[in-house]
Amino acid sequence: MQPLSHMAGTDIIYNKKFVDRSRCLIVCGQSPLRRCGKRGKPMTGVHAAVFKAIHEGKWLTIEYRNRNEQTTRYWIAIRELQLPRGVLVVDGLHLGQLTVQELSIYLARIRSAELVEGSWCPVNEALVADMEENPNKYAALFGSPVNLRVLDYLAACNRLDSVPYKTDYALIQHLDGDSFSGGRLPLNDAQFREIVENFQQRSQCPASQKLCIQQLALNLISVDTQKGLYVLAYRPLALDVKKRELRALEESVLCREFTIQGEKVSLRQFLDPEDYDLLDHLEQNLERIKDRITAGNPQLRGVNDMPYLVAIGRDIHVDLDYEYRGILDLYDNDRADGKSGPTPPVRAFFGEMTTRPRRRKSYPLALLNRRINLDQLLAINSAMRYPLTYVQGPPGTGKTNTIVNTLVTAFFNERTVLFASYNNHPIDGVVEKLQKLTYRGCTIPFPVLRLGNSERTAAALDTIRRLYEQCKKLKVYEKALDRNHAQRAERAKQLTALLERYEKILDLREREATIHRLLEARSHLNFQYELQSAQLPALQKELAELGTVTNEDALKLLDRNEEELYQYLNFTAARYILRLDEPKYDDLLEIVNGAGEPREKAAAFNKYLSEPENLKKLLRVFPIIATTCISAHRLGRPEPVFDMVIMDEASQCNTAMSLVPILRGNSLMLVGDPQQLSPVIVLDPKDNETLRRRYRVTPEYDYIANSIYKCFLACDAISDEVLLSWHYRCHPRIIQFNNKKYYNNKLHVASKVESDKPLVYVEIPNDTTDEKNTAPAEVDMIRRYLDKYPERSVGIITPFARQRECIEDLLKVRGYANASCGTVHAFQGDEKDVVIFSLAVTDRTRPETYKWLKDNKELINVATSRAREQLVVLSNQAQLDRLHAGQAGSDDLYELVQYVKSHGTSRVTAKPAASRALGIKPYSTKTEDAFLENLNHALDNAFLDGRRCTVRREVAISQVFVDNPSCVDLFYTGRFDFVVYERQGGRLMPILAIELDGKEHRGDLAVQARDRKKEAICREHGFELIRVENSYARRYHYIKEILIRYFGGR
Q1: Is residue 852 over pLDDT 90?
Q2: What is the DSSP string of 111-170?
Q3: Rounded to 5 degrees, what angle do the CA atoms 1006, 1009, 1013 make?
Q4: Is 176 exposed, middle or buried (0-12, 13-18, 19+ CB in 10 A)?
Q5: Cβ distance 797 to 837 under 8 Å?
Q6: Is the pLDDT of residue 749 over 90?
């Protein structure tokens, strides 16, 4: 084995251009793991790349500095990692001679490292298992391996969640696909050299442009459409550098969407819903899939399952490896804002919030109007005072109003905000309301800047110029503004105090429920007596003194002088905009007033914003930035610069991309509804499962199953979730179905809508069709309805694309201007006077299709809750009965039809999600019973022989195992959350310790074995260890406070 430090490297030319920042990857090229910023430790990116290469089985391209301080470039495949010296045993490819030899290199001497995407080497499974079983052993190199695995998993999911396309690939011309044998293609010297050189090519593009990745592959099945080739599935090819061959990887890739001539095409166009299950076992069903596509699509030119070579391209809009580096830096470095360590949102994401967040100072609320309720006030106040706030907003409960008032309150309190969402629609709705605020007939120059793609960025530059010109005409009286602010803040104190009292009442009620649960668990008599005679009466007395807080109480305290607020907003906004007069903004104004093309000016502005100091300057003028999650990467470096991030429709935001704006803020407000639409994901479930196994991530981070809202709620059991419970949109009888079915009957229906017939079922007697998933008779009924009621705004929703096309043709031919048709995604956030729900369930509907339809919560909840005055359901009862009879389990669609037919009197079976806001426990009864049983057993031992006990919080594990320090490495967090000690003279002897489980504790046999070993060691040292699941952390928090009060009084 030859140490790389002894190699001269004189025959290798160091190409400085290779490490320049670029945005395009050619031929499965390198993942751009860039160097850290100037404040970061220079090796953070190297360690992240090494970690990823070990888990994915890929080569790295590295720059290595030897003992002679010479820098050479190599490709390496990691075989072993030797601790504690940090020595890597690798296979090294000399890029000049293209020879491979075994080397030993020091990790600390690697100056840069990037993955060679499309390469292959064996995974050292023993090393991966050791890293998982003994994370503390590798903490000095990789920080938290658990967190790294999560981030690498999400980045990998994001890459495959892009829509692929067929691309031209010069290398294919030099490869003979017929020479593949056993899934491998040997390469001659010329071919190998050409591939290695092509793997290194990286064209220099502006940083704002997307990454372009090309993948060599073997076709599994493809269809030749009139517009071009759709590759339905392929097997990726990877370069085995050591053996000089291309090898087909075991995992095939299914393309549920494909881009042909710039247009997205869905696989669902070629298969019926009842055939979707065939895709779950792709390779076993290839022949059946081919037959079904051929039979159902006579317009296709052919279906090909020959294993020919094909090149697949993917456009990756954001380099998540680089973005996530910002998260890793938070753990390693002091921050620019003077704070250290990760922000509360990052800690919450990784399940590290073990105690209730501390309240910040009180902030006066600035409300645009009196159309508000106690829930919305609580959400706004929580967002201002706590680092994490989750707001569940069911349909018609005022999510937009809550967000707008939160943004105005943040502006009033001089806080910077990044407002983001998954697409433009929810952002535009909020920004439009802010930009239309008026004072005495004039538009208020509210300093919100709407950014995004080139067109929106160009429009933002126009906004800056227009607002600047507008504000130059205003005279701003600084002292009067300050006085106005002070007076309004003083008047808002009463409302703030009321909300704090309301928070206290909610907290005490939760503590009271915890005491009752402890009493039910039949704990030790001494402890029960303490709870019943002391703690419970004292708590109930405090609750009685606090009384109750109602909507009316809050409304009485709202500031009635709205014009004064609008005056303040008008002139304070002007004061912000007029900061552009300062010389430091000359470079910005040069871009704003430049004479170039809009796209060129947008590119210049994006380059300006990429510099952190420029972003901070801009926030002095525009403290509120609104943009999509995907465009947030253009805002400076990936580091916390905003006081607050607000994310709307968070239940539709995917986890991977949502972290881009989240990591840029010090606090977070997520607003969404997990009972409505989920993120649109094109990643194939089989690929997702492969990635989950590779990175060993727990269900909370499942890319397909979770939105960012669900993920945070699963990982953060401590912070509050506020339910917006007052519904204002639908007629009461319409929304009561959703209320009972999905919201645990928690909604207060306050809508004033009047309608003689809010629920209408129309029986379609001859609901037959010649084409699957269409219902011509329902289309005709829609025509008759629209002819009869031309004055009503009508939304038509159907679950099937073919039925939608038929209805859209009707609307176009007949010229109906009052109606629109689409899927539920098209109507999310919208509302209509009337919603017509065309089920298109006919004699051609098969049980497999109905199975997909019957419990589609997203479809049913969103479709029904768009209607203000009337919900009309079109179907055929006989067909519904036929399909319902053949199904097992629940059937929400059938229940909806019966509910509409009975005019809202039929029984509705509840199906709420596990949500704290809906009063549903996020943990199982089994989890709580097991914890309380262990706790009672430990307390019985603590009370033996009248022991005198005391407690300590957050005790370093090294303090407990003083005589046996080798035990410390077993404990992932490095501390016990809570320890009960027995006083023995002047010594404290532990008799009970409680450890909070991290995310790695679920479902992994290796970690479970480590936990059993920890328990055994604790018993050997004379005390019990109780572990607390993350989902139980909030209830445990109250139990811990109860125990502290108990032992503190003994």
Answers
A1: no
A2: EEEEEETTEE----HHHHHHHHH-GGGGHHHHS-HHHHHHHHHHHHHHHHTSPPEE---G
A3: 140
A4: exposed
A5: yes
A6: yes
* Residue 945: pLDDT band with limits 50, 70, 90: low
What is the Cα–Cα distance from 46 to 20, expressed in whole angstroms?
Answer: 16
d(CA 375, CA 358): 21
Cα distance between residue 621 and residue 584, in whole Å: 12
Which pLDDT belongs to residue 16? Answer: 30
Distances (CA, A) of 179 to 183, 573, 781, 989: 10, 69, 60, 72
CA angle 448, 449, 455 (to 5 degrees): 150
Mean pLDDT of the residues in the chain: 87
Which element (helix H / strand E) includes 625? strand 624-628
CB 357 within 8 A of CB 532: no
Highest mean pLDDT among 931-935, 964-968, 985-989: 931-935
- Gyration radius from the chain CA atoms: 31
With cut-offs at 50, 70 and 90, classify the pLDDT of residue 38. very low
Residue pointed to by tokens 């986890």:
655
- 987 pairs with which residues across the strands? 984
Please classify residue 865 by burial: count the beta carbons closer than 10 Å to its beta carbon, then call 0-12 exposed, 13-18 middle and 19+ buried: buried
Q: 310 versus 665: which is more confidently predicted?
A: 665
Q: Is 419 helix (H, G, I), strand (E, B) or coil?
A: strand
State the average pLDDT over residues 297-308: 84
pLDDT of 973 > 60? The answer is no
Q: How far apart are CA 100 and CA 371, in angstroms?
A: 71
For 298-318, what is the mean pLDDT?
A: 87
Contact 995, 971 (CB under 8 A): yes
Structure tokens at 51: 């970690």
Q: How many CB atoms lie within 10 A of CB 876?
A: 24
Q: What is the pLDDT of residues 499-542, one digit of tens each?
A: 999 999 999 999 999 999 999 987 777 788 889 999 999 999 99
pLDDT in tens, 390-408: 999 999 999 999 999 999 9
Identity of the amino acid at 939: L
Phi, psi of 962 (to 5 degrees): -60, -40
Question: What are φ and ψ of residue 371, in 5° steps?
Answer: -80, 75
Q: Can you tell me the distance from the alpha carbon of 830 to that of 732, in angstroms, rounded to the nearest whole number?
A: 18
Cα–Cα distance for residue pair 636/215, rounded to 1 Å: 31
Asked if residue 955 has pLDDT above 90, the reply is: no
Query: Can you tell me the distance from the alpha carbon of 474 to that of 482, in angstroms, rounded to the nearest whole number?
Result: 17
The residue with tokens 């919080």 is 953
DSSP class of 475: P
Q: How far apart are CA 585 and CA 595, in angstroms?
A: 18
**Closest by Cα among 153, 141, 148, 150 to 110:** 141
Could you identify the residue written with the tokens 């429009």?
A: 459
Judged on CB neighbours under 10 Å (0-12, 13-18, 19+), 264 is exposed
Provide the CA 263 distance to its chain's centre, in angstroms. Answer: 27
CB 712 within 8 A of CB 349: yes
Mean pLDDT of all residues in 792-811:
94
What distance in Å separates the CA atoms of residue 135 and residue 139, rounded to the nearest whole number?
A: 6
User: Cα separation of 659 and 318, whole Å?
Assistant: 11
pLDDT given at position 41: 39
Which residue shows structure tokens 């998982």?
A: 132
SS3 state of residue 910? coil
pLDDT value at position 131? 86
Start-end of H helices in 225-373: 286-296, 320-332, 344-349
Task: Please name every residue paired with 953 in a beta bridge, in sequence order, or none if there are none.
Answer: 978
What average pLDDT does the segment 893-921 reach? 90
pLDDT tens digits for range 340-375: 789 999 999 998 887 777 777 788 999 998 899 999
Pairing verdict, β 832-838 and 71-82: unpaired
The candidate with the shortest Cα–Cα distance to 979, out of 931, 1030, 929, 1018, is 1018
91 forms bridges with which residues in the sheet? 77, 102
